[in-house]
Design a protein that fits this description.
Shape of chain B: globular
Distance between the termini of chain B: 32 Å
CATH architecture of the largest domain in chain B: 3-Layer(aba) Sandwich
Low-confidence stretches of chain B: 6-58
CATH class of the domain at 3-178 and 208-237 and 291-305 in chain A: Alpha Beta
Largest sheet of chain B: 7 strands, mixed
CATH superfamily of the largest domain in chain B: Glycerol-3-phosphate (1)-acyltransferase
Strand content of chain B: 5-15%
Keywords (chain A): Isomerase
Protein name (chain A): UDP-glucose 4-epimerase
Helix content of chain A: 40-55%
Pfam families (chain A): Epimerase
Oligomer: heterodimer
Helix content of chain B: 25-40%
Radius of gyration of chain B: 22 Å
InterPro entries (chain A): Epimerase_deHydtase, Lipid_A_modif_metabolic_enz, NAD(P)-bd_dom_sf
Strand content of chain A: 15-25%
Largest sheet of chain A: 7 strands, parallel
Order of helices and strands of chain A: EHEEHEHEHEEHEEEHEEHEHHHHHH
CATH class of the largest domain in chain B: Alpha Beta
Number of strands of chain B: 9
Shape of chain A: globular
Number of domains of chain B: 2
Domain NAD-dependent epimerase/dehydratase (chain A): 5-237
CATH topology of the domain at 3-178 and 208-237 and 291-305 in chain A: Rossmann fold
CATH topology of the largest domain in chain B: Glycerol-3-phosphate (1)-acyltransferase
Distance between the termini of chain A: 67 Å
Chain lengths: 348, 341
C-alpha cells in the first residue's frame, strides 16, 4: 500500500503546487489537501477537505484516512485574503499548529512530519553574527508578528518530536520565497513602485525559488535517500547574497531612504490602505538583513538548490517587468555616454 | 617590471614615484588599450622603464584621461545596474577597491605617512589572524591597517576587520563597514572567515583600548577573554601580532564626558584639546607619523584540535601575543624621532 500524505494550507499557491507535485511521486497513493477555504487553483485530482486546523476535526481526518505523512504548510506571514486580519493568521499559525500536532500525537499511523518554517526565527539584530547556522541562538528574540509565531511553532514541534520519537520530524526554515506566484511579504514589498528603505542601512537578503521550495519539501516528505538524513532542522536558501540596494537596481525600482520611525509610520499607512504589510520584523529585516548557512541542507539533507539568490531575483524581476528605472535603459545611457568619447568609440 | 604598461597622465613628477600604485589601478580597470610604442627619441632624458613620460606628449595624456573615463563609466554602468557581487558578509570587493580604498589612501599616504614593516609575516594565501593594538578614540587605526595590508601585501589581500556591535547599530557606518568587509567581532564570524582563508584583523582591547586616556598611551589594556586565540586555534590559522604607533596621538583624549556618553549610548565621549572646543574643526585628527609593524606569526597548527578548549594554553598564547605587541610598541617608540615626523 502506498503512502497517504496530508498537506495543510493548500489554498495558497505554494501549497497547491506542492500537492500537485507530491501526487506524481510513485509511492504516494493519496494526497489530502486541507484548508479553511477552498482553493481557487486546481489540486490535480487530490482530495480537498475543507477543515480549519484550529478545530479538533483534523484529528478525525488523520484517523479516517490513515495518514502517514503530514506536511504542515499553513504557517504564513500574510493573510490569504488581502483584507484578512493578522489575528486570524496568528491563530492559524500557532493554535492551528498546536491542534495539528495534538492530532498527530494521537494518530499512530503518522510516521513523518514536515513543517514549513522560516528563517525569521533568527530575527535580525546588529548584534547577531553575519551568518546564522541552525544552532545559532537569536540574540534578540522576535517580539511579535510572524517571527514570533514561527518561534512558537518550532517550540511546539520540538515538544512533539520529544513525545513521539518514532515520528521523523523535519523543520525547514525557508529564506524569503520568491517566484511567479509566491505571496510572501517580501514579494509584496518588491512589487511597490518605489521601495522605501531605511536610511544608512543596506541589508543582505537571501531568496529561495518556489521550484526549489517545492523540491526540498518533497525531499523532506519522502523516505530519505541513501547517505542523507531528512529529519532535523534545515536552513533553506539559495546560494549567495543580494544587498537591498543591488536588488532594487536590478529590479529597476527607485528607493526612497527614510528614517526608521518614518518607515514604521508609512508602514501603518500602507497597511491601512491594504497595499502591503510593513510589520516591525520586516522593517528589522530591511535594516539589518539576514543570511543563513546552508551547509546542513547540502550535506545532510542532500539538496542542492537549482537557483542561486541572484538567479531567483533575476527570474522575479523578469516576471514582474521593469520598474521606473529599468537597468537596461540606464546601461544604455551610460553606453551612449561612453560612445560619445573618442577612446570608447575607438574600442567598441 | 617589463609588464608595467602604464600610461600616466598629468605632468606631475610625483606620478613617477607612484608607479607601482598606478599599475594596480590601471590593471583593475577593464579594457586597456594597447600601449603606444615608446618614443625614446622624443624624450630628452631616459625615463625609468616603469613609467612612460607623459609631459611632452599631450596626446598620451589625453588617451590616459579617456581611458580613465571609460573605465569609470564601465564601473558606473555596473554599479547602477546592480551587476556586482557581494559575499555572505556583505563585502563589496569592487566598491572597496575602486572607491573606499581610494578615499582612505590619501590619508594613509599623505596625512599619516604610514610606514609598514614586516609585511612578509602575513601569509600569501590561507587564513591568518592579525591581532593589533587599538588606540586613538576614533578607529582610524583599523582602517589604516586595512589599507596597509591591501596596498603593501604582494597578493593585495583584503583585511577583514572585526568590529564592535556599536558599528552595526549606527546608520551609514554599518552599511559602509559591511561593504568594506568588516563584520561583527564574534567567534562565529571570525571562525567562518578564517576557514574561508581570509586575513582577519582583530583588536582585542576593544573600547578599553580605543577609549583610554592620553596619559595611558601605548599601554596595552586587557585582551578581552582571549577568545581570538581559541578561534585561531579552531581554524588552525596563524596569529600575526601587529603594533601600530602613531594612532594614539591623533586625538589626544584628555577627558571623557561620561554623562554625554551615557546620553548618546556610546561607551565613551572623548574630550580632546580641540574637541568639542573647536567644533567640527576639532574633529580633524592630528597629522602624526605612523608605523605599522607586523611581527613573526605564531603558528597554531602545532597544537592538537582540542587545544582550543584548554584555558591554560589560551591564556599563555594570549599573553605571548600581548607581550610581543607591547615590546614592539616600546621598540618602535624608542626608534621614533618625533610624533609628527
Amino acid at each position: 500500500m502506498g503512502r497517504v500524505v496530508l498537506v495543510t494550507g493548500v489554498a495558497r499557491q505554494l501549497g497547491g503546487r506542492f500537492v500537485r507535485r507530491i501526487q506524481r511521486e510513485p509511492d504516494v497513493d493519496r494526497v489530502i489537501g486541507v484548508d479553511a477555504v477552498a482553493p481557487e487553483h486546481h489540486l490535480g485530482g487530490a482530495e480537498f477537505v475543507q477543515a480549519d486546523i484550529r478545530q479538533p476535526t483534523i484529528g478525525k481526518l488523520l484517523a479516517e484516512h490513515q495518514v502517514d505523512t503530514v506536511v504542515h504548510m499553513d504557517i504564513n506571514g500574510t493573510p490569504l485574503n488581502p483584507r484578512g486580519s493578522r489575528t486570524a493568521v496568528k491563530e492559524t499559525n500557532v493554535i492551528g499548529t498546536m491542534q495539528l500536532l495534538g492530532a498527530c500525537q494521537k494518530a499512530p499511523t503518522v510516521a513523518r512530519l514536515v513543517v514549513k518554517s522560516s528563517t525569521s526565527v533568527y530575527g535580525s539584530a546588529p548584534r547577531d553574527p553575519a551568518v546564522f547556522t541552525e544552532t545559532t541562538p537569536a540574540k534578540s528574540l522576535p517580539s511579535g508578528g510572524f517571527a514570533k509565531d514561527t518561534v512558537e511553532v518550532e517550540g511546539y514541534v520540538r515538544g512533539f518530536a520529544r513525545r513521539r520519537p518514532d515520528v521523523a520530524v523535519s523543520v525547514l526554515r525557508f529564506a524569503n520565497v520568491l517566484g511567479p506566484c509566491a505571496d510572501s511579504p517580501l514579494a509584496e514589498y518588491f512589487a511597490l513602485p518605489i521601495l522605501p528603505t531605511i536610511i544608512g542601512f543596506d541589508p543582505r537578503l537571501q531568496f529561495v525559488h518556489e521550484d526549489d521550495a517545492i523540491e526540498v519539501l518533497r525531499i523532506a516528505a519522502d523516505e530519505p535517500r541513501r547517505g542523507t538524513l531528512n529529519s532535523g532542522t534545515f536552513n533553506i536558501a539559495g546560494d549567495g547574497v543580494l544587498l537591498l540596494s543591488q536588488a532594487s537596481r536590478r529590479l529597476g525600482r527607485p528607493t526612497l531612504p527614510l528614517l526608521s520611525p518614518t518607515v514604521t509610520w508609512l508602514g501603518s499607512v500602507l497597511r491601512s490602505v491594504g497595499i502591503t504589510d510593513f510589520s516591525p520584523e520586516q522593517i528589522r529585516l530591511l535594516t539589518h538583513g539576514r543570511v543563513v548557512d546552508t551547509t546542513q541542507m547540502r550535506e545532510t539533507l542532500g539538496f542542492v538548490p537549482r537557483y542561486s539568490t541572484a538567479e531567483v531575483f533575476t527570474n522575479y524581476a523578469r516576471s514582474h517587468g521593469p520598474g521606473l528605472l529599468p537597468p537596461e535603459a540606464l546601461a544604455r545611457t551610460v553606453d551612449q555616454l561612453a560612445a560619445a568619447l573618442p577612446a570608447g568609440a575607438g574600442q567598441n | 617590471m617589463a609588464d608595467a604598461k602604464v600610461i600616466p597622465f598629468g605632468e606631475d613628477p610625483r606620478t613617477r614615484r607612484k608607479g607601482q600604485r598606478a599599475v594596480r589601478t590601471q590593471r583593475a580597470q577593464a579594457p586597456l588599450q594597447p600601449v603606444p610604442p615608446q618614443r625614446d627619441e622624443e624624450q630628452p632624458v631616459a625615463e625609468p622603464p616603469v613609467v612612460e613620460a607623459a609631459g611632452d606628449e599631450p596626446t598620451a595624456g589625453a588617451v590616459g584621461w579617456e581611458q580613465r573615463l571609460a573605465g569609470g563609466l564601465d564601473f558606473l554602468r555596473r554599479r547602477i545596474t546592480g551587476d556586482y557581487e557581494v559575499d555572505d558578509f556583505g563585502f563589496d570587493e569592487e566598491l572597496t577597491d575602486q572607491v573606499l580604498m581610494s578615499l582612505l589612501r590619501p590619508m594613509y599616504e599623505k596625512y599619516f605617512r604610514v610606514e609598514v614593516r614586516g609585511m612578509e609575516n602575513i601569509p600569501r594565501t590561507g587564513g591568518a589572524l592579525i591581532v593589533a593594538n587599538h588606540s586613538g578614540t576614533v578607529p582610524l587605526d583599523g582602517l589604516m591597517l586595512q589599507v596597509a595590508v591591501h596596498d603593501h601585501h604582494p597578493a593585495n589581500r583584503h583585511l577583514r576587520l572585526l568590529a564592535a556591535d556599536l558599528v552595526f547599530m549606527l546608520p551609514v557606518i554599518s552599511e559602509l563597514a559591511r561593504k568594506a568587509g568588516h563584520t561583527l567581532a564574534c567567534a562565529e564570524d571570525a571562525q567562518r572567515l578564517l576557514e574561508r582563508g581570509e586575513v582577519v584583523g582583530v583588536m582585542p582591547e576593544g573600547f578599553k583600548g580605543i577609549g583610554k586616556p592620553f596619559s595611558e598611551r601605548y599601554k596595552l589594556q586587557r585582551f578581552g577573554r582571549g577568545g581570538f586565540v581559541s578561534t585561531a586555534l579552531r581554524a588552525r590559522a596563524p596569529i600575526v601580532p601587529c603594533s601600530i604607533v602613531g594612532a594614539e596621538e591623533t586625538y589626544p583624549m584628555v577627558g571623557n564626558s561620561k554623562t554625554l556618553a551615557r546620553l548618546l549610548g556610546f561607551p565613551y565621549f572623548p574630550i580632546t584639546p580641540t574637541f568639542p572646543l573647536l567644533g567640527p574643526l576639532g574633529a580633524v585628527p592630528l597629522p602624526t607619523k605612523w608605523t605599522i609593524q607586523f611581527g613573526e606569526p605564531i603558528p597554531t597548527d602545532v597544537y592538537p584540535p582540542e587545544a582550543a578548549d584548554d584555558p591554560m594554553l589560551m591564556f599563555n598564547l594570549t599573553d605571548q601575543v600581548r607581550e610581543t605587541i607591547q615590546h614592539t610598541l616600546y621598540k618602535l617608540l624608542v626608534r621614533r624621532r618625533s610624533v609628527f615626523f
